[in-house]
Design a protein that fits this description.
Length: about 500
């Protein structure tokens, strides 16, 4: 969409194909724009609510045609439920649902009665940002590779937002929301792409383009440099592959001095066969999505590059696939990671923690003083928390609190799992090496985190296991089935809303 346009004045006087209006469940009479509308229609909207034809039930959608009695052809009413229960996250979902309806209607432009969404708990700016974000996310579609798309090609080109709030502020917030939404969609597209097209080299090119466009410092380590540095864990995972590995590094400097650097690390396994600990045929499909952590970090960097906060950030993405061949690494191998720790391989399918180990060490070498990693690390997190909660492990309560706060703003649910001394002992229990990469299936989402903690060491670190949340089988209010772009917005909010 090219044009967003915020304007003051009566929202119901200019011609529109349709308009979105929020309907709060209030016992009193209509107020704000709804009152104006109701008066224009001589109380008919009050009657519709009374008769139950129009409901304020949370997320209910009603289309009302104005039958030529107004310059606005149709109204899309979206129920917001009771004012008291209307949090930002709930409002984002309700708006998303209304925007999906707009997309279905195949209109080129629409308008919004923004003030019908503003209520006691949320400012105009806040609602505008939610709108920009929800609209952009909800109308996303992966283009795919069909020769002929069966959907007619109508795209929404214009959104007119009517409000009594200061116009410029509203426009700015709408744009910020759209930046968040667009970056989430970029991440979704990366995750939805198949691994024959999105290989490690593609990710490296993508980062290179992004660095150019958003003025990041870029470093891409190739195999020879990894060998020189001693990235034995990253190289072991790549050993069986025909595709060269890349360690992708992006730096954004928002402060004069390169201090207080936040490191964002994202698992970039472009396809995970499991290696010699081969995945069963039912578990191998969709393993093109095993680079969702990398996509989250790239998405967050897109937002950071657009909003340019006064923070320093280094993003590190280990990109490789995990394949089988005569050259591949094997169970029982012992490898040496970048920080010198030796690792006994018990399961080549626990490859994510290996590439992340070297990426975390490298992020620290680049000056990261705080670390957050995002990774589709374990099936165990799905067993523990289901498909709608990201699992978190940490060595630092304060940093975790900040990540949690960011996630509450973005509505991306995070739940912390414990990480005890006993857990650490289990990853240190190899008889022949410092660590083993798979101490057994009991609590194995925790084991993934415990392993990474050995590389974060004293640096405050939060691990986000997105194996359950990176993709979804069902379409939802904020997007279609497939990749969700989870944690793009949370990582960005952590950096951009830092106080
Ligand atoms: N990429 C997988 C985790 C995964 C599973 C992501 C399902 C998305 C959906 C990861 O590399 C893996 O295979 N983990 C193993 C770890 C085990 C061997 C300790 C797992 O979860 O089974
Ligand atoms: Zn694996
Ligand atoms: Zn994996």
């Amino acid at each position: 969409m090219d044009v967003i346009h915020a304007q003051n004045g009566n929202p119901f006087q200019t011609e529109q194909a349709c308009m979105i209006v929020g309907l709060l469940d209030k016992p009193e009479k209509f107020s704000g724009p709804l009152q104006v509308l109701d008066q224009m229609f001589k109380g008919e909207f009050t009657n519709l609510v009374k008769s139950g034809d129009l409901s304020a039930k949370f997320k209910s959608i009603h289309t009302v045609h104005s039958l030529g009695l107004s310059p606005i052809k149709r109204f899309i009413f979206v129920g917001l439920g009771k004012e008291k229960t209307l949090t930002a996250s709930r409002l984002r979902e309700a708006i998303g649902k209304a925007c999906k309806k707009i997309k279905e209607m195949q209109v080129q432009s629409f308008s919004v009665a923004l003030d019908s969404f503003i209520h006691a708990g949320l400012s105009g700016g806040c609602v505008a940002q939610l709108f920009g974000e929800a609209f952009t996310m909800a109308t996303y579609e992966f283009p795919g590779y069909k020769q002929k798309s069966n959907e007619p090609d109508v795209t929404i080109e214009k959104m007119s937002v009517f409000t009594n709030e200061p116009q410029q502020e509203i426009e700015k917030s709408l744009k910020t929301g759209m930046i968040y939404g667009k970056a989430t969609n970029s991440a979704r597209t990366l995750v939805n792409m198949p691994s024959n097209l999105l290989n490690p080299a593609y990710l490296a090119e993508y980062a290179k383009d992004m660095a150019k466009q958003l003025a990041f410092e870029l470093e891409i380590l190739e195999k020879a440099e990894m060998e020189k540095l001693g990235m034995g864990a990253m190289l072991a995972v790549n050993q069986g592959s025909e595709e060269p590995p890349y360690m992708i590094v992006l730096k954004y400097q928002g402060q004069e001095q390169w201090t207080d650097v936040i490191g964002l690390v994202g698992k970039g396994i472009t396809f995970d066969t499991g290696g010699y600990s081969l995945k069963p045929k039912s578990g191998i499909v969709e393993m093109k999505t095993d680079m969702a952590g990398a996509a989250s970090v790239l998405g967050a960097m897109e937002i950071i590059g657009e909003l340019r906060p006064d923070q320093n950030v280094v993003a590190v993405i280990p990109a490789t696939d995990n394949m089988v061949s005569g050259k591949a690494f094997k169970p029982d191998d012992v490898i040496t990671s970048l920080n010198g720790k030796t690792i006994e391989i018990l399961n080549t399918d626990a490859e994510g923690r290996l590439v992340l180990a070297d990426a975390i060490t490298y992020a620290k070498m680049q000056g990261a003083e705080y670390l957050v990693d995002a990774a589709t690390l374990t099936g165990g997190v799905v067993v523990a928390l289901g498909l709608d909660k990201t699992g978190a492990l940490t060595n630092d309560k304060d940093l975790f609190e900040k990540v949690l706060e960011a996630s509450q703003k973005t509505g991306e649910f995070i739940w912390r799992l414990p990480l005890t001394e006993k857990d650490k002992e289990r990853v240190r229990s190899s008889k022949i090496a410092d660590l083993n990469n798979s101490p057994g299936r009991e609590g194995h989402a925790i084991m993934g985190g415990a392993f990474l903690a050995e590389f974060a060491e004293a640096t405050p670190w939060v691990h986000l296991d997105i194996a359950g949340t990176a993709t979804t089988k069902k379409a939802h209010e904020l997007g279609p089935s497939g990749a969700t772009g989870v944690m793009v917005r949370t990582l960005a909010a952590l950096v951009c809303d830092h106080t």
